[in-house]
Amino acid sequence: xxxxxxxxxxxxxxxxxxxxxxxxxxxxxxxxxxxxxxxxxxxxxxxxxxxxxxxxxxxxxxxxxxxxxxxxxxxxxxxxxxxxxxxxxxxxxxxxxxxxxxxxxxxxxxxxxxxxxxxxxxxxxxxxxxxxxxxxxxxxxxxxxxxxxxxxxxxxxxxxxxxxxxxxxxxxxxxxxxxxxxxxxxxxxxxxxxxxxxxxxxxxxxxxxxxxxxxxxxxxxxxxxxxxxxxxxxxxxxxxxxxxxxxxxxxxxxxxxxxxxxxxxxxxxxxxxxxxxxxxxxxxxxxxxxxxxxxxxxxxxxxxxxxxxxxxxxxxxxxxxxxxx
Length: 325
What we know:
This protein has 325 residues and is mainly β. The protein folds into two domains: 32-268, Immunoglobulin-like (Sandwich), CATH 2.60.40.3880; 280-319, no CATH class. Helices cover 14% and strands 42% of the residues. Strands 2, 5, 6, 16, 17 and 18 form a six-stranded mixed beta sheet that branches. A five-stranded mixed beta sheet has the order 8-14-13-10-11, with no helix packed on it. Strands 1, 3, 4 and 15 form a four-stranded antiparallel beta sheet that branches. Helix 2 (280-287) runs antiparallel to helix 3. The N and C termini lie far apart (86 Å).
């Protein structure tokens, strides 16, 4: 009987010792990001919608931020965003004080020609009591929501000090002409390395000019954002890579950090004859099969895999003309 009491005492003592560790494990699971995309497969130029919700202790968080990073098929980070889930936080650890397009000397400049260098002057402030190392990121979109490129810069800043960067950015030759936008953010590390946002996202607009008419803009659908949720829409234009894109998301709230398992989407291009480019030969493949009906996707000319070869398939190929050339 005494042996049973000793065993019970030991088990109870062990349970009491483990209780704090169990509490810590549970605490680490309080913050959760749910991430979605509206589709898994897209054509280059399609609108991609990334959205989701942020939960703390199973309740929606209405005053949080979620950091996003999207890498192209080569692993290069193409997009950085910080998305709000409702009310913006009242404090920022590394604040973006100002962001504006400029020349290489930091003088404001609002217009840049395709194929030429643009610059963005960014001033940040460390609101911490200690020196902090962080990343400044910029992502540029053209007038058709097309992601042009992103840049990131690692820096260490003393407490309550400002720093100004003049960061160069090459405007692609194929970027859509018109009003473009740049988004600026700061992160502890890049989101794919589990870094979280340190600032509220800032943005600025500028104009892209050129001599060739841009593609007609496709208006983005309006989506009503709900408290506790986040969303962003963008396009991967035809001057980017086709293949697998990877989406990373992170958040920090009430001293808890959450990351999601990386999510992938596939960006396709209608290179029907597999010669590494989209040209008139691909259009011909569709044109000679116009009117065909059968098993969806069983022939290359059924580009949208709806079981019919028609004008919609021609439009998909025409939209990608010039890719790979």
